Task: structure prediction
Amino acid sequence: MNNKDNVQSGLVKNVYRWIDDRFQINALVDYMSHKEVPVHRHSAFYYFGGIALFLFIVQVITGILLLMYYRPGADSAYESVRFIITNVSFGWLIRALHSWSANLMIFAVFVHMFSVYFTSAYRKPRELTWVSGMLLLALALFFGFSGYLLPWNQLSFFATRVGTGMAGIAPVIGEKLLIILRGGEEVTGATIGRFFGLHVAILPGIFTVLLSAHLIFIQRQGMSEPLEWKNKGAHEKRYIKFFPSFLMRDLLVWLIVLNVLAVLAVVFPDGIGLVHWPLGIKADPFAPPPAVIRPEWYFMFAFQALKFLPAHILFIEGELLGMGVFTVGGIIWALVPFLDKKSSKGQKSKFFQAFGCFVLAFIIVMTFLGYILK
Result:
């Protein structure tokens, strides 16, 4: 090693020592190096939480870039998106990355949620980790709903009118909730302002706080071990160090996801098949609605289930009853760690496993029917 290398090495060590004196980096590295991650047949699902985190980071970066050119308003929203696509250097690519990462993030979150559920990883002491994850999923879905209107094209206009109209059927607060969401009785430029504020300020702020809490919970409690390990001896269990082994693998997965995301954005900038977001034509409140109005794929199961309900069931409106069932079902799903008493004892509950299978099958079947039925 020559003198130049010695000088550079000494400079790096001095900078690291200066930072460590103030932020105790060594203590953090030591803590992470002692953490262990279980290795078993389902451990590949551990990476989906990290994938969702990475895609959220992509969302933030691309969203900031789009924000530099986007202008909310009935007279400017559509034109600004068209300007981004056609005039801004690589604007079409940034929009494609933003849209693809949004869809892939929600898919990753769903996979992560069901993997946690079926392995009973929500059991004591991780109840609040599960609850915070459910709140993050709800916010991610609301992200998708609020962002859908922002291009102000024909499809997003009518889809938002239908979506906000469903909120308006809620008893007592429905009418006020509708006005709050729309900024009036109809979907107008004021609605864009409301949704824009939600999408770029309010939701990201709440999401970041919840995400920070969720990550802290995971770091403090570590990865959940499988239930079947309860009766295994220490010599039968296998672990890897979180730092650097698991962390390096996680970063490798992020790199793979980035490549997949880049290929999808370049080859299919407007999406593909049923997952697409072409700009289309500008919204016109006086134009007839499209022949087929479908929500995003992650709302399709609920949308299709509500379509199957009759107009009235006894003395209750069908849609209102359906929304009530979905609300109660979502609350039960979020409270499963407190309801599943067997999991805290290291036992699998046949009832809750069957309940999870029913929910998963319901989502898949209703989504499938929503796309094949007109």
